[in-house]
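S.,

Sequence below, as promised.
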Amino acid sequence: MRKICQLICCLLVAGWTQAQQVDLLIKGGHVIDPKNNIDGIMDVTIDDGKVLEVAESISADGVFQVIDATGIYVVPGLIDIHGHHFFGTEEDAYLSNSYSALPPDGFVLRAGVTTVVDVGGAGWRNFRTFKNQAIDHSKTRVLSFLNIVGSGMGGGAVEQNLADMDAKLTAQVAMKYPEYVVGVKVAHYYGPEWQPVERAVEAGKQAGIPVMVDFGGHDPPLSLEKLFMEKLRPGDIFTHCYGQTKNRMHVVNEKTGILQPYSIPAQERGIIMDVGHGGGSFTWDQAVPAIAQGLKPNTISTDLHTGSMNGGMKNMNNVMSKLLNLGLTMPEVIKASTWKPAMVINREELGHLSPGAGADVALLRVVEGDFGFVDTNRWIKKGSQKIICELTLRDGTVVWDLNGISKPEWESRHE
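The prediction came back faster than expected:
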């Protein structure tokens, strides 16, 4: 009887051990996790969609799958806080349920991006449509900055309608959907009034969320210093920070090449400088002198839509590569693409590889060569480094694998 009991115990222990098998081990990669101050060769284990452990050497015993990440950076899933994903089929609606916006899964997972923020595509009037079409049907985590314009980023006259800029209703929808709405957006307003910014900030105050400003334009231009120092709050976001569009003040004086004296004090005050590359908002004339004089971006983002994707922007990795070639270190580039944006949008469960965190992970390779990077004025600048995404995990599941490093090698059945 004792032997039978011992046998049963052994079988139970064996079954328990098998049940405890770890799903995945990423072996030998260069882990950069800014939140946890990790920057070195480490192993990462993932189980049941969560990060299990990050350590210098983890045994492969009991691991179901091992991925060799030698020579590859292992980082938290990238967070793009400026994109346009309210795709649809409405005519003449620009980035609000129309053709220029893009479904995220087809365009961002391949760049290591696991979280996107649609900025302003939807307003309080059509957020439910955006949620049904984009948020609810994407593997990518999709969040939103609500447009202060109730009808969203419909282009043209729609975005000039002061009567549709309602702080109270915007805040109400934001507070109704706090798991999805992380900010308020004001954009493309070309009048002399400050009301669009003021109403967006008021909505942000009521809902307890940040505001992102695309400063639009006017002749004469509104004061950028006033925007930074009086209208916005610490934690609010100035996107297109290296843009050079008509009828707008810029962070670098175009005539002298000197950084505006209030630019760095604004950043020190807490104004978030966001890249927001886009199809018309990143120029070497601004980015090169601004960074050389100390104005590095807090957050790196794409302003992804059909125009920017097919122009000089291309994707998140290409924008990151531009900043890398302008002198940011790889840890700085990763922080501005992961942990910092997570903090900016108050989603601090994202952007890191802490044990227990959701296993959103990107494996990035930096390749050396002779590359050309194009700004939105169509000028090329050469660079020697380019970031390429090898693998993307979303909650521990492979959703992009460029070279099949997560797959078993084929063997002929006829040899």
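The longest strand covers residues 380-394.

Coffee later?
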